[in-house]
């Protein structure tokens, strides 16, 4: 691992602002690729249109809030110190199934074109549960350009508690957890769950982070995840320090300090938030591309200068609103490793933004190919109904391209109901995962069959076919 930096910011940041819920934080034929004349759903997404006015860019501005370092130090000390990523991986207790062991339904969720080079299915209980939804992915290839965190190759997958299932305890609503996947042996992946939390009471306690992890980026020693979408708050992103993975010593349903120590809702490990990024324009508005956007997904672009976090907003696949995609540059200061570049007022401005007419976007990647004069933006469309393949578009300000496959010349060639994407630069792989989709009313069908797969596709297999 070439990166060794730690967060050493001397200035005490503004306290982490969040909505409180009880005692917990409410963070809240042969397939070919061709240029498209018609997108999924009959709409032509055309080219990206750059947003240049200060008013438009201003709607994307963030404000950084950091937890007091003393609170983080206190909580770390109270819970026995940092366990570390390697420590979690050493105790991985859930095996992943290789592609050959996936069910027929799971394998059917994989893309038609380009085909997946690697695919994995989850342990049986996680593959079938309706309580949790797989939403996002990032890797140690994001964290460091050598592809490793220390001695380990790691994949992280963010899952959000399903808020739509009737009868679930109110205290479970919106909980967020991350699968730390040991990817050192490609033929034997295994993982351990870690619960997202946030410090309370000066580090004497912690509460559950309640977040829709639609996207996440592990860059240097920080993990940034998207917050819950909605109009009830203006939190956009939450930040975690990968040097602060802590261990609970009491096994109970509670989250936080209990008699005898600390409990994490049955999980052994917790990852405490160290800060958040709020939208300065106020609460986001889903479904209106002229308002403050709700973050749908994020990813890392190592081909920009400096490295950047790219984001996109999600609207319903049945809608007509164009969506925005944009980027923020990371800080280059040695005492701000893994944090976004902010000004003297702790505000973070978007550095580039576009509008796309592609709808129903679940993931976004920006990548500048060698010798190109501009970056391409890859966005994946997921249809609203279950059991249907989506579309992976490649867009820039010149036009749009996508895969065309099957006898009816459909553009539905990507995975079934895919979520966020992550590009592992060291291996050249584009990673994503499929969710278990609900019906058109966003309700879970009692007899639904799991369609959850984590897979990788070489980005070159997309680009080579287009050239």
Write the layout of secondary structure elements.
Layout: E1 20-21, E2 24-25, E3 32-35, E4 49-50, H1 54-58, E5 62-66, H2 69-78, H3 85-90, E6 94-95, E7 97-98, H4 104-108, E8 118-121, H5 124-128, E9 132-139, H6 140-143, E10 154-161, E11 176-182, E12 190-200, E13 205-208, E14 216-219, E15 222-226, E16 235-241, E17 246-247, E18 255-258, E19 261-264, E20 269-279, E21 295-301, E22 308-313, E23 323-329, E24 347-348, E25 352-356, E26 361-367, E27 376-381, E28 391-396, E29 399-404, E30 418-424, E31 429-434, E32 454-458, H7 459-466
Parallel strand pairs: 12-20
Antiparallel strand pairs: 1-2, 3-29, 4-25, 5-20, 5-24, 6-12, 7-8, 8-32, 9-10, 10-11, 11-12, 12-13, 14-15, 15-16, 16-20, 17-20, 18-19, 21-22, 22-23, 23-25, 26-27, 27-28, 28-29, 30-31, 31-32
Keywords:
5-stranded antiparallel β-sheet, globular, mainly beta
What does this structure look like?
- By secondary structure, the protein is mainly β.
- It contains seven helices and 32 strands.
- The protein has helices at residues 54-58, 69-78, 85-90, 104-108, 124-128, 140-143, 459-466; strands at 20-21, 24-25, 32-35, 49-50, 62-66, 94-95, 97-98, 118-121, 132-139, 154-161, 176-182, 190-200, 205-208, 216-219, 222-226, 235-241, 246-247, 255-258, 261-264, 269-279, 295-301, 308-313, 323-329, 347-348, 352-356, 361-367, 376-381, 391-396, 399-404, 418-424, 429-434, 454-458.
- Strands 5, 6, 9, 10, 11, 12, 13, 14, 15, 16, 17, 20 and 24 form a 13-stranded mixed β-sheet that branches. The protein has a five-stranded antiparallel β-sheet with strand order 3-29-28-27-26, with helices on one face.
- A hairpin with a 2-residue loop joins strand 14 and strand 15 (222-226).
- Mean pLDDT is 85; it is low at 3-42.
